[in-house]
């Protein structure tokens, strides 16, 4: 794992934006690190009987969430591949289960690229009050502050799922396997 100084939030951030971006980067790092040392079978394994979630599926879903909120909603752009041609309208869980066809390196690269695009998108705006180009939830557009907080929430919740899945994988999978 890399030096925590490169991704761990400062204890006294200079401002709200710095705090939000540092916490999001911390959870991005955690999510990627849970996948980085697995092989394809482990990344695709249904490690807990109670869920169909996989480590690879969660990280691919997080890549989609990054692009959806920062590219699609904030900037109002068409989503890049693989989302542009994915059957998301018919199968909203496609990122979760399609990851079994991707190598670990492909999923990590997809996630890293999405995070870079997200940082670039956020960096185009001076203010957290900047309004997204596309409305959300049928109520109107959210602002950049909302998107950053939402992505911290989304990524942190999935980091918790990843902790449980990794614990099961590291211990040998579900009971009886």
* CATH class division: Mainly Alpha
Averaged pLDDT: 93
**Low-pLDDT regions:** none
Shape: globular
Helix content: 55-70%
Structural class: mainly alpha
How many angstroms separate the termini? 29 Å
Radius of gyration: 17 Å
CATH topology: Four Helix Bundle (Hemerythrin (Met), subunit A)
Tally of helical runs: 6
Report strand %: under 5%
SSE order, one letter for each helix or strand: HHHHHH
Largest sheet: none
Q: Can you count the beta strands? A: 0
What is shown here, in short?
With 177 residues, the protein is an all-alpha fold. It has six helices and no strands. The protein has one domain: dinb family like domain (Four Helix Bundle (Hemerythrin (Met), subunit A), Up-down Bundle), CATH 1.20.120.
Characterization of this structure:
This protein has 177 residues and is an all-alpha fold. It has one domain (23-170): Up-down Bundle (Four Helix Bundle (Hemerythrin (Met), subunit A)), CATH 1.20.120.450. It is 55% helix and 0% strand. The protein has six helices and no strands. The chain has helices at residues 16-36, 40-44, 55-74, 94-98, 104-123, 144-170. Helix 1 runs parallel beside helix 6, helix 3 (55-74) packs parallel to helix 5 and helix 3 packs antiparallel against helix 6 (144-170). The chain starts with 15 loop residues before the first helix and ends in a 7-residue tail after the last helix. The model has no long low-confidence stretch (mean pLDDT 93).
Main traits of this protein?
177 residues; Four Helix Bundle (Hemerythrin (Met), subunit A); 55% helix; mainly alpha
């Amino acid at each position: 794992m890399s030096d925590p100084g490169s991704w761990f939030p400062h204890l006294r951030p200079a401002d709200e934006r710095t705090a939000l971006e540092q916490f999001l980067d911390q959870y991005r790092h955690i999510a990627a690190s849970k996948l980085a040392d697995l092989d394809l079978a482990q990344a695709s394994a249904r490690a807990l009987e109670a869920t169909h979630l996989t480590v690879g599926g969660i990280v691919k879903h997080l890549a989609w969430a990054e692009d959806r909120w920062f590219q699609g909603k904030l900037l109002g752009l068409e989503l890049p591949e693989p989302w542009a041609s994915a059957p998301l309208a018919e199968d909203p869980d496609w990122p979760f289960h399609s990851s079994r066809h991707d190598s670990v390196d492909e999923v990590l690269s997809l996630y890293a690229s999405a995070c870079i695009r997200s940082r670039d998108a956020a960096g185009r705006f001076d203010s957290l009050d900047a309004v997204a180009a596309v409305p959300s939830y049928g109520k109107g557009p959210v602002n950049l502050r909302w998107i950053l907080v939402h992505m911290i929430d989304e990524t942190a919740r999935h980091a918790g799922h990843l902790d449980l899945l990794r614990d099961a994988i590291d211990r040998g999978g579900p009971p009886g396997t």
